[in-house]
Structures are given as C-alpha cells and as structure tokens.
TrEMBL record:
The lineage of its organism: Bacteria, Pseudomonadati, Campylobacterota, Epsilonproteobacteria, Campylobacterales. InterPro entries: 5peptide_repeat. This is Pentapeptide repeat-containing protein.
C-alpha cells in the first residue's frame, strides 16, 4: 500500500475529539476529516497535501512549519488559530469562522479570497502571492543545483522542492534564497542528496542547510585561528 494511502486512513477522523494533541512530523496527505475537534492541537512540521477538513474545529490550534497544498477547510472554526512559518498554496478556506486567526512568517500563494477575510493586523511578515515566483528570478547555476536533486526519491516524493510534472517549486526556492543566499545554495545543495528517509516539509531541508552553514562557519573560524597562531 502506498505511503499516502496508509496516511489517508490513519489520519482521517470522523466525529472524534483530537483536541490538545501534538502531531509532529506527520503526513496528513489526502486524508479527510469530518466534524472533528482539533481545538488547541499543535501541528508541527506536518504535511497537508490534498487534505480535506469539513466542519472541524481548530479553535486556538497551532499550525507551525507546515506545508498546506491543495488543502480544503470547509465550514471550519479557525478562531484564534495560528499559522506560523508555513507554506500555503492552492488551498481553500470556505465559509470558515476566522476571527483572530493569525498568519506569522507565512508564504501564501494561489489561495484566492484569503486576503479579503483576514485582517491585515493578523498578517505579520506574511506574503500573499497570486502566482508562484518566476524561475527567471534565479541564476542558471542555482536552478541546475536544484535539478541535480531530482534523482533522490525522498526529495521527489516529498513534493517540497518539486511539484507535479517535476516542475521546481519556486516558492520553496524563494524561501531558501532569502534565508541562505544563492551562493551558499549553489555550493551546498548537493549535501541534500544524502537524505535517506521520508520527510514532508521545507523545515527539514532548512535544518540540514543550517547545520551545514554552522559547520562551515566553525571550520572557517578554526582556519583563521590557525593562521593567526602560525603568524
């Protein structure tokens, strides 16, 4: 049974109470939940691709470092919910209660109507786009570096860096460039080819790159210290 089919069954809920739970690094892809209470629940590093929530409560829920792609919230209660450090694309918030629902450090793309129902004061460091960034915004060297990651099946299956038909997810590229810079990515993206386990969000890739960046800084400082002692 494909992984997504297993998760579809495992994380599909109907008329149950899942309030106050913690779902960390989970895969809710293609699952469907109905009249379920997720109030006060924390979702961290979790993927919601093609996920459907109908008549569910997310009162004061926290959705952190998550990927929402093609996600449907139909008549859900999102009052006081928090979306933080998350990517939201091609998703639908239909007839939801959304009072004081906050979006912090999020990227929202192709999610029509959300900007009309969310107060600007509840959007902090959050960018709402009507289309994915153009690949022309990036150097050929950077795009080639991403292309070389296609052969890693864990990266490809995650849908984090590549979309349907193998198109590069330029929204993810944009986020990585803003945090690490093009030069660092060109020189270090190849380290991602060592990924050998399933993952579901961009936060996993960012942790690997941050670790690489930290190690490079330590090595550089060590080299400077050595040169200073020799001189």
């Amino acid at each position: 049974m494909p992984v997504n089919d297993k998760n579809k069954k495992a994380f599909s809920y109907s008329c149950v109470d899942r309030s106050g739970r913690k779902f960390i690094y989970k895969n809710f892809n293609k699952s469907c939940s109905y009249k379920t209470n997720f109030s006060g629940t924390i979702f961290d590093g979790t993927s919601f691709i093609g996920t459907k929530f109908k008549f569910c409560s997310f009162y004061e829920a926290q959705i952190r470092s998550c990927l929402l792609n093609g996600t449907l919230f139909r008549k859900c209660n999102l009052t006081n919910a928090l979306f933080e450090d998350s990517i939201i694309s091609s998703s639908v918030f239909k007839e939801c209660k959304i009072k004081n629902c906050k979006f912090y450090n999020c990227k929202i793309v192709c999610t029509s109507g959300l900007s009309k129902i969310i107060s600007k004061r509840n959007l902090k460091n959050t960018e709402i786009l009507t289309a994915f960034p153009s690949s022309n915004n990036y150097s050929k060297e950077l795009l080639k570096a991403f292309d070389k990651l296609r052969n890693n099946r864990f990266i490809k299956n995650s849908s984090v860096l590549f979309q349907k038909r193998d198109a590069i997810n330029t929204l993810s590229v944009d986020i990585l460039v803003s945090e690490f810079g093009e030069n660092f990515l060109v020189n270090n993206l190849s380290s991602l080819n060592h990924i050998s386990c399933d993952f579901h969000t961009l936060s996993y890739i960012k942790k690997i790159l941050y670790k690489k960046q930290k190690n490079d800084t330590i090595n550089e400082l060590g080299s400077i210290a050595t040169q200073g002692s020799i001189s």
